[in-house]
Amino acid sequence: MNIKKIFSKKKRYEGYIYILPWLIGFLLLQLYPFISSIYYSFTDYHIASAPHWVGLQNYIKLFTTDTEFLNSLKVTFLFALYTVPGKLILSLAVAVFLNRSIKGINYIRTVFYLPSLFGGSVAIALLWKLMFMDTGVINQILKIFSLPSVQWLGDPKVSLFTISLLEIWQFGSSMVMFLAALKQVPSSVMEAAYIDGAGKIRAFFSVTVPYITSIIFFNLIMQTINALQNFTSAFVITKGGPLKSTYLLGLKLYNEGFAYYKMGYASAISWVIFAIIMVITLIFFKTSSSWVFYEDEK
Amino acid sequence: MNYSKKRFGLILSYFIIFIIGIFMVYPIIWMFFATFKSNNEIFGSLKLLPNHFSLDSYIKGWKSVGDTTYTNYFINTFLLVVPTTLFTICSSSFVAYGFARFKFPGKKIMFSILIATLMLPNAVVIIPRYVLFNQFHWIDSYLPFYVPALLSCYPFFVFMMVQFIRGLPTELDESAYIDGCGSFRIFCSILMPLMKPALFSAGLFQFMWTYNDYFNPLIFINSVTKYPISLALRMTMDGESVVQWNVIMAMAFLAVIPLMVLFFSAQKYFVDGIATTGLKD
Q1: What is the pTM of this model?
Q2: How many CA atoms within 13 Å lie on the side-chain side of B13?
Q3: Which of A101, A222, A250, A251 could cross-link with A231 by S-S, CB 3.0 to 4.6 Å?
């Protein structure tokens, strides 16, 4: 008998042993929590007392009387609206520029990646808080150019923008992804476009962009999911203030669940977050067929 | 004419990149010098360089409040992050081997489930997980970090390694099998050495994520003696009535050093990791 056949036949069931850790982890730490959080969201579960079924009450309360939650929804959407396109456009633009033979490209890439390395940490959140204080270094710099100082963290109209800036600052990791994708665009196709008389801008939008739409698409989804769950920066820098102007859904979830231990109510919030993510992802996927191109497609 | 125009464009682009680059690194450089300044100097002076280099803030900050010092916090951080990272690499590669090299009933469905969990937001599972770990009496220990790592609850890494193993020729396994190797020996002595780049990338990212993570330590760790750096930094700021920013910046800067060292010594794996698998923050 063929060696390949013996090999594949004999090994069949051993595979279960290898995936066993994942299977246990999935059932215990992903599927079970997933299902029980649906259940909790229909109860008045508090960490100290057993859950009682309350039907849709949590959800009704969220969307009718809990103005704090409705505000959080708005703030979170705005946050995603600032950061996701901001990051995407900046990372793509810089990647396109860097996609040529430049001396010291490795150093440049390093410098641009650096903020992604620790931008999400408490250490950098504290740095941001200090730099953007009323008397902080940013306002001092504005003063040199005789620009008026801004209440970066004190003005409810500006605070969310300041938090978003920290997120956009970390565009380096998507830039590295785009840079790798741009390397895959065959130069022959670009040359053909130039020969056909396309200008640089035209060639970019008609040739380069279609080649990297799948990476753009992937970035769009992952960044949106991350933006909707952001927590650390707003929690450390502004604690959600001033006037709840940076009170993201992540903070609301944390406070209800882990400050007041209202597990049922917090679960309802987490399901709203999940539903929003599902809807947005679904919209992206539905519309993707019209703008995302895969190379193996004809 | 054309030549000089082209040259002008190039210089302009370099200039723009240079400006953006300054925005990227200026905060970090400013942070470094702020650690040597006095509190007044941070707010009062625009100069980047401190008037004189003083290590006071480092000495003051390191002592922290109470009996626990930053020595404890750093040890705690590594006790939390290093095992979590190692467990993640081991379990993910082990599971990935099962998915990539074996045929068994239900594999397709289970692999689809694995892919689906890539999209599962942490927010949805965190509350029942907390309740579960609370019942196990795991709160205020590092088990809520170790156990999910051991049970390969990070589908990103499993998926990435499955892709990597699929790229390795099966002839290697077959010849080892003929020589009498069992499947576990094949995994350990044939595939593991070849998987080094993937293991390294996964390890780096898991290290970085766990090290930077604030939300999970915040809910799972209660006692100050077990605090990792992220919690300690926040406490240092909240602990005083008049915030001593030079002290906080000194400790914050120390907190980012391990990541910088790691990044500069293993840059290639970071870049390859992002470029090939789409891993990101």
Answers
A1: 0.90
A2: 15
A3: A250
